[in-house]
Structure formats: structure tokens, C-alpha cells
């Protein structure tokens, strides 16, 4: 006796999501360029054949995702999502999977080295000037763990930017966001941590300026190994990121 085939239930996306998806495809595919208008609400209502509330909800989804924005006249324009918006979602996923600092360290060793290799090859004068300014500002706050942590994160973003490789810029951000708080923890708990960090940044900048890939890779690896040694003085590499930060926050309140 023949059995009746079992079909999956059809997933019908809400109309506003279909509107958002259609506009997103046009932006991601490059048919609508960043800065170009996507049309007024009324034009979108007419084109999609839906009501105004559906269009507004679709626009809200795209604005939250960083794909469209309103100019000074409140007109809708396309824009590319900022790396940090995308990276934040991925960082949350890493936390949910209980990744450890050892995993972050090993991944960053690959991505940060690749960034500096690209920067040595392709950094512009403007890139070098931005890095030099960062290093000087870092030297001024070497005794301020919170301030130095912010500038440390900025330095590595600038190196990735100087690589002229947008995939690298995006790929390193999720792990970098989870790394960021550890700089303050290390500098606050290891007396020589701040000065060593700034010195490593100076050496990496010098290598980029001289187009010396070997030196850039060497100092990036030393810098990351230095991070590892400093971190192991205050926490375990094999603890999950979430548990480590929870323990640190608890200890800080005592």
C-alpha cells in the first residue's frame, strides 16, 4: 500500500520582511549604491503593492541592520552596514557557544598577522599617519588601563584598515570585540603591561612604515604572545569568555 508523502509546512514570511529582503538584495548586490536614494515611502508602497505600515516596518528592519538611513531631509538612502553591527551579532554567537580565550588567541594569531602583512604591502600615507597618532595618544595614557584599552582596540582596527582588505576587517571584528576588555584587565593587573603594549605598537608601526613584512609579523606575534603571558597571570585561557568576565566582574565588586 502506497504511503502518503509527508510535506513540510510552508514558511510564509511576513510582508514587511519580504519588503526588507527585496531592498537588502538590491543594496548587497550593488544595484543600489551607498548614498543613493531608495525612494519615498509612497513610491515603495506603489512598487511593492503593500500598505504604508508594511513598508514602514520593512524600513525599520533595514535601519536597525544598518542598511539604510535617513539624510538631513529625512529621505531614505542606502548604506553598507558598519562592521561593528555585524560583528556584535557574531560575538554574541561566540559567547553562546562558550568559546574560550585559547580559541580567540589562536584565531587572532592568524587574522592579526594577515592584517599586518596586508598593511605592510598596502598602507597609504594616511593610514600610517592615523597609526602614528594612535601610538602617540597611547603613550600619553599608558597609566590609564581603560583609556589604553580603547586605543589598543583602535590600533588593531587601523592596522586592518591599512591592509585594504575588507574581508579581513570584518573577519577579525567578532573576536576583537571579545578581546577588548582583557587589555584593561591585564594593564590593571600587570604593572609593565601598558609600556610593553605601546612599545609593540611602535615596532609594528615602524615595520609598516618601512614596508618590512618580516619585522611586522615578528612584532605582531610577539605582541600577541605578550598578551597571552599577561592574561595567564590573571585568568585561564581554557575558561569560557563569558565565565571569565563574570568572575572578573564579581572580583571587582568585592
TrEMBL record:
Superkingdom of source: Bacteria
Transcription recorded as keyword: yes
UniProt keywords, alphabetically: DNA-binding, Transcription, Transcription regulation
UniProt-listed PROSITE patterns: HTH_GNTR
GO molecular function, one term: DNA-binding transcription factor activity
Keyword match Transcription regulation: yes
Sequence ranges assigned to domain HTH gntR-type in this UniProt record: 13-81
Matching PANTHER family: TRANSCRIPTIONAL REGULATOR, GNTR FAMILY (PTHR43537), UXU OPERON TRANSCRIPTIONAL REGULATOR (PTHR43537:SF5)
The protein's name: GntR family transcriptional regulator
Source organism (scientific name): Bradyrhizobium macuxiense
Taxonomic lineage from the root: Bacteria, Pseudomonadati, Pseudomonadota, Alphaproteobacteria, Hyphomicrobiales
Amino acid at each position: 500500500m502506497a504511503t502518503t508523502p509527508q510535506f513540510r509546512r510552508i514558511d510564509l514570511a511576513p510582508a514587511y520582511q519580504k519588503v526588507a529582503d527585496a531592498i537588502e538584495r538590491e543594496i548587497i548586490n550593488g544595484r543600489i549604491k551607498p548614498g543613493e536614494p531608495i525612494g519615498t515611502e509612497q513610491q515603495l508602497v506603489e512598487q511593492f503593492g503593500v500598505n504604508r505600515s508594511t513598508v514602514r516596518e520593512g524600513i525599520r528592519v533595514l535601519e536597525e541592520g544598518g542598511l539604510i538611513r535617513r539624510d538631513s531631509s529625512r529621505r531614505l538612502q542606502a548604506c553598507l552596514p558598519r562592521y561593528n553591527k555585524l560583528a556584535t551579532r557574531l560575538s554574541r554567537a561566540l559567547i553562546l557557544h562558550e568559546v574560550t580565550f585559547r580559541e580567540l588567541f589562536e584565531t587572532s594569531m592568524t587574522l592579526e598577522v594577515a592584517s599586518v602583512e596586508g598593511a605592510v604591502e598596502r598602507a597609504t600615507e594616511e593610514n600610517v599617519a592615523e597609526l602614528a597618532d594612535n601610538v602617540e595618544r597611547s603613550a600619553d595614557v599608558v597609566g590609564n588601563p581603560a583609556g589604553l584599552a580603547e586605543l589598543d582596540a583602535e590600533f588593531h582596527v587601523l592596522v586592518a584598515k591599512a591592509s585594504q582588505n575588507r574581508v579581513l576587517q570584518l573577519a577579525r571584528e567578532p573576536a576583537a570585540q571579545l578581546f577588548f576588555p582583557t587589555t584593561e584587565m591585564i594593564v590593571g593587573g600587570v604593572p609593565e603591561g601598558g609600556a610593553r603594549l605601546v612599545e609593540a605598537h611602535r615596532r609594528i608601526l615602524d615595520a609598516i612604515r618601512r614596508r618590512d613584512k618580516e619585522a611586522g609579523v615578528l612584532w605582531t606575534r610577539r605582541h600577541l604572545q605578550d598578551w597571552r603571558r599577561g592574561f595567564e597571570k590573571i585568568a585561564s585561557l581554557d575558561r569560557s569568555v563569558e565565565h571569565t568576565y563574570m568572575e572578573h566582574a564579581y572580583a571587582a565588586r568585592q
